[in-house]
Amino acid sequence: MNAPTLPKLDPKDFKSDVKPIWCPGCGDFGVLAALTRASAQVGRPPEEIAVVSGIGCSSRLPAYTSAYGFHGVHGRALPFAIGLKSARPDIEVIAVGGDGDGYSIGGNHFLHACRRNVDLVYIVMDNHVYGMTKGQPSPTTEPDWICNIAPAGTGLHPLNPMTLAVAAGANFIARGFTGDPNGLARLIVEAIAWPGFAFIEVLSPCVTFRPEQKDWKHAVHAGPAEPLSDRARAAAVLLSDDGFGTGIFFKGERSRAHPLPAASRTMDDIERRFAL
């Protein structure tokens, strides 16, 4: 018997009727384009995908897709995503957010999500600034960037999320650029296919509060020719990277976390376990 023919999906199948309200020129438009293209390539219909976010400009993204969406609270996208994937391993779970949501209030969740290695994808749109709250420094902001609340700069060493991810145990680590949505779509497809926790850092310029980031298109360049599988070597490469290398930096071989047994995923079972 021939296998059933799956319907051919188009990126438009994954776009909702809600019009994005990002600023003109925002890099997050490129992430939305890449995510819808990647979803079509993966071939799973919208009802088999869930997009989970926290708070911030980039965290509006679930509303702009036709997949299941969950817009959570600040910094908590990963706990929601991990809970969903653990209870419903049949659904493709993609968590999205920004550098403030993911690395500041959500930083602790980021580290432990890498450790747990649940089979999901985490896409962080990094623009080195809090855009939704009008331009404050984030954990990845350069120490000498001047703004109203830091007139002399913060003087703080910026976070290196990809190095943290490889040290904490993420199984797939890559960086993309919103100016190359097709390349970013390919990264997302590979991240979905690779088992375990996949982390994609996306350089997503904020042209409103960081207009100088328009020059990122001249700074991005190809990263490693091939993904590394040795964690120590990957950490060394990431520590020496200038922050603009793109591509897949690391593919690990850790066993992914196992989902909950089906018998323990029913509401009756949960109520019994927590009954006083």
Question: Could you explain how this protein is built, in words?
Answer:
With 276 residues, the chain is of the alpha/beta class. The protein has a single domain, classed as Rossmann fold (3-Layer(aba) Sandwich), CATH 3.40.50. It contains 9 helices and 8 strands. The chain is globular, with a radius of gyration of 19 Å.
Structural class: alpha/beta
First-residue to last-residue Cα separation: 53 Å
Kindly provide the name of the CATH class.
Alpha Beta
Biggest beta sheet summary: 8 strands, mixed
- The proportion of strand residues reads 15-25%
Summarize the structure.
With 276 residues, the protein is an alpha/beta fold.
Reconstruct the topology from this structure.
Layout lengths: L27 H15 L6 E5 L14 E4 L5 H11 L4 E7 H7 L1 H10 L4 E6 L34 H8 L3 E6 L3 H13 L4 E6 L12 H4 L1 E2 L8 H10 L4 E7 L15 H8 L2
Offer a few descriptive terms.
single chain, 276 residues, alpha/beta, Rossmann fold, 8 strands
